[in-house]
Structures are given as C-alpha cells and as structure tokens.
Design goal:
With 380 residues, this protein is α/β, with parallel strands linked by helices. It folds into 2 domains: 197 residues, Glycogen Phosphorylase B (Rossmann fold); 169 residues, Rossmann fold. The protein contains 14 helices and 16 strands. The strands form 3 sheets. It has an 8-stranded mixed sheet with strand order 3-4-2-1-7-8-9-10, sandwiched between helices. Strands 13-12-11-14-15-16 form a 6-stranded parallel sheet, with helices on both faces. Strands 5-6 form a two-stranded antiparallel sheet. The longest helix is centred in the last third of the chain and has 24 residues. The two termini are 31 Å apart.
Length: 380
C-alpha cells in the first residue's frame, strides 16, 4: 500500500506525536508499505526509507517550536507522482487541510487521527474563548475522513460528544526494546539529582509547555524532604518554569534520547505527570516500560494506561494534597515500589509498536476496500 502521511509536526522536532509517527513509518516501511511524509521542512529528505516532502514553514508566535506550513501546489504534483492508495492526515490544522483537499479532489480514501487536545491546550495560552470555534473547525475537517482514530477511549468519547463521526481507537505503542528496568544507573541518578542520589528522585519527561501544568509538581517536591526533581525536555515555557522553580532542587536537563533517556527513566523513583490535557501520554508508557512507578492525574487518556494501586497511582487533578499523599505513599513502601515496577513493565509489554502498526494497517485496508466497493456499486 502507498500511504501519503500529512503531519503538522515531524523530525527533527521531539514530542510524543513525532515519536509515534517515527515508529509507525518505520514499521509500515518494514512490512512492505511505502510512505511519503508531508511535513514542515526540517531539513530531512528521508526517514527509514520513506521520502519526506518538506514544506517551507515559519514558527508559531505563541509556540516557536511548532512551525506552520501552508499548502502549496508542489504538494499536488508530489501526490500525482506518488499515486497514493490512501491519505492519512495527522492532527489536521494547516498543512493537513491540503491532505484533505487533495484526498477529496483526487478521490483517494482519507484517514484522520487526533493526537493533540487543542481545545484544552488553548486555555493555557489565554485563548479559551475560542474553544467552541475550534471544535467546529475540527469537526468540519475530521468529518471529511472515512475514519477518525484516537489514542485513548476518553478521546474517542469526547470527539463523539462534539459531533465528530466514525471514531475508533488506535492502540498505544511503546519501544519495549529500548526502555527496560535493568538500565538503572548510579551515574545517571547522580547526574539527574545533581550529586544527591541518596534522596528521592522525581522525573518528568516531555514538552515544557504551559498546557503540561508542570508547576503542579512543585508542592509535591516541597512536601518531601531531600527530594530532587529532574525535568527532561524543552519548550516555550522553560524560562517561566526556571523562575517558578528557582530555589528548589530542580534540574532542567534538556533533551535526552535513546539509551540516555531509557536510563533516566529506569534510575528515577517516580515519574510525576500532572497534565490534564493528555490524549494518551506516550511518556507514561515509556516510564512504565523502564519500570519507573507513575504518579499521574486521573484525566484524559491516562487511566487507560495507569491502573491505580497496581502499576502506579492516580490522583484527582483538582486535589493538590492527593498528589502529595500518593507520592508519599509510594516512597514509604519499598515493596509497593517494586510491585509497581514489575506490573508497569508487564503492562508496557502488551503494547509493541509492531502490533499498533498492524492494527493501523487493518484500518487502512478497510477504508480502501470500502471506497473500492462504493465506487464499483451501481448508483440508483
């Protein structure tokens, strides 16, 4: 199958969506499909055998790490040459509109997927009054697709409630070969704690954006003596966070990749994740694959992954004391931490990227076959 993949974000950017797309492209190519990626130009021409059609773009003012790439005629010419069997638009917003347009005009089956909960995000950038309009725009775009895929049951329900049709679940995935519990490393623990490895070490991995609500970790840190916090990642909110966490034992690590990132997960005592805007939370699965106990807000797609009291703790996102109590409970019971590490790893092992991609391929085939059937059926 030949798949044209339109995405508003791709390499060299690092985030959960890019991670998912990287593994998806790799496994599609490995299993014999051919992929052409349309994305904001990041300088890359190829990834894992898939060609990348970079579209010139400019940084989004409120979020400079994100680039806006507007549709242009070269996209149509590239599609004509590639002759895709299917178009998949990921988080259609700007560039994705081109994918929808050409899929319709060229009569190519269309799949859309929803990964970033934009209607929630905009509240953290002072644009909450636009939520209703944004849902209408999302509904208009997504309802052009033959199927809309979400990465958690909570998001399936929310999209259906807002009038988006033909919604189904695209299962989560994680690289269980890279992220493993045995990678615990004293040197990494000393680095993340800035030379204080004996105390409790909390970890956050992800985009440093306002929507991630990282400030909500500070009361947990302050309530637990000798605790240290390592924030892995970067983003537009970093400068504000550095001011907010000034005077606390917090280390801004920057980006880590591959084995270094896997070692960081495995070397921490707890992965703290306070965000209430997650459609899935891929970093949670990475932490669990590395055997790092998770303490996270009971919100969005997170309860799909974390079983409270089995492989981590969930807290009411409105209850600051609940987050503190859950963390204290985890640290006070070593046997519980070891049980969480074991059960977290078992949960992660159920969700390989190859299985998630095989499921995606089955959605692709059903959409293509359905369009062929409709095209060949006599009209009344």
């Amino acid at each position: 199958m030949r798949i044209a993949l339109f995405t508003e974000t791709f390499l060299p950017k690092i985030d959960g969506i890019v991670t998912r797309l990287k593994h998806t492209v790799k496994h599609l190519q490995r299993q014999g499909d051919r992929v052409l990626v349309f994305s904001p130009d990041g300088g890359l021409k190829e990834y894992q055998g898939a060609k990348i059609h970079g579209v010139s773009a400019f940084p989004l003012p409120l979020y400079p790490e994100l680039k806006l790439a507007f549709p242009r005629p070269s996209i149509g010419r590239a599609l004509e040459q590639f002759q895709p069997d299917l178009v998949h638009v990921v988080n259609p917003a700007v560039l994705g509109v081109a994918g929808i347009y050409y899929a319709k005009t060229m009569e190519i089956p269309l799949v859309a997927s929803y990964h970033t909960h934009l209607p929630r995000y905009i509240h953290h950038y002072g644009l909450g009054m636009l939520e209703g309009l944004l849902w209408e725009l999302l509904k208009t775009m997504h309802n052009q697709a033959q199927i809309n895929l979400c990465t958690s049951t909570a998001m399936v329900e929310e999209l259906l409630a807002h009038g988006i049709e033909r919604v189904d679940l695209w299962q989560r995935g994680v690289d269980t070969e890279t992220f493993q519990p045995h990678l615990t490393c004293p040197e990494m623990r000393s680095h993340l704690s800035q030379g204080y490895p004996e105390g409790p070490l909390f970890l956050y991995v992800g985009r440093l954006g306002a929507e991630k609500e990282i400030e909500r970790i500070k009361p947990i840190l302050e309530a637990i003596p000798q605790a240290r916090l390592a924030l892995v990642g970067d983003g537009p909110h970093r400068q504000a966070l550095e001011k907010y966490f000034a005077g606390t034992p917090t280390y801004f690590v920057g980006y880590l990749r591959g084995l270094q990132l896997a070692t960081a997960y495995a070397s921490a005592d707890a992965f703290i994740f306070p965000s209430r805007t997650e459609t899935l939370g891929l970093v949670l699965l990475e932490a669990m694959a590395a055997g790092c106990p998770v303490i996270a807000a009971r919100s969005g797609g997170i309860p799909d992954i974390v079983q409270d009291g089995v492989n981590g703790y969930l807290f009411d996102p409105a209850d600051e004391e609940g987050a503190i109590a859950a963390t204290q409970r985890l640290l006070s019971d070593r046997s519980m931490r070891e049980a969480f590490r074991h059960h977290a790893r078992l949960e992660a092992e159920r969700w390989s990227w190859s299985a998630a991609t095989r499921q995606l391929q089955s959605y692709y085939r059903s959409v293509v076959q359905r369009q062929k059937f409709c095209s060949s059926s006599p009209t009344s």
